[in-house]
Prior knowledge:
Helix content of chain A: under 10%
Largest sheet of chain A: 7 strands, mixed
Low-confidence stretches of chain B: none
Low-confidence stretches of chain A: none
Radius of gyration of chain B: 13 Å
Radius of gyration of chain A: 13 Å
Order of helices and strands of chain A: EEEEEEEEEEE
Number of helices of chain B: 0
Largest interface: A-B, 27 and 27 residues
Number of strands of chain A: 11
Strand content of chain A: over 45%
Order of helices and strands of chain B: EEEEEEEEEEE
Structural class of chain B: mainly beta
Shape of chain B: globular
Mean pLDDT of chain A: 92
Helix content of chain B: under 10%
Number of helices of chain A: 0
Strand content of chain B: over 45%
Structural class of chain A: mainly beta
Oligomer: heterodimer
Amino acid sequence: DTGVSQDPRHKITKRGQNVTFRCDPISEHNRLYWYRQTLGQGPEFLTYFQNEAQLEKSRLLSDRFSAERPKGSFSTLEIQRTEQGDSAMYLCASRQGQGALSPLHFGNGTRLTVT
Amino acid sequence: GEDVEQSLFLSVREGDSSVINCTYTDSSSTYLYWYKQEPGAGLQLLTYIFSNMDMKQDQRLTVLLNKKDKHLSLRIADTQTGDSAIYFCAETYNQGGKLIFGQGTELSVKP
């Protein structure tokens, strides 16, 4: 399977704990995006990378959130001191090239539940 | 700022046509997309249209774009029960290619 892969599929954590998610994009896709989706809503943009450079971060991305893409391939999204409001589906997507022409390919997401 | 709106629910009978509507506010949108999301899954790209087009057809799918009214629609011909899902409209306008999504329309297809 050469699609976007996310791990884990599900994560249950207690409030205050740190969690880390991983995304493996489609090979050779230089752009990688993180989105968050809550129930009944569309995905909301969090941040994106071109290769290893983080080029844009949403206002939604508080200082408890940090994302990295150290070698320009896989990416991690870490949430520190989780809160119940962080419960959501975290989606990763990738694309090849610049501009809007190449479509985004999404992974199946990591569902986070904070208890 | 940019905003994308969709009606939340649509119910049709199998074999009928479905029309899902979307409005957007950003007149500088360059590409508009339709994605499909099935339960527990990520988003699957169905089709997209450039802002300088007004129609695109792809098998059972027809996309209509009214740029003046900032209105986009997706028509699914001969709707099947397997088409039941949530459909998201999305736009992009900048070089980052960041997509702004609507809240999704849940399509229910009754046999």
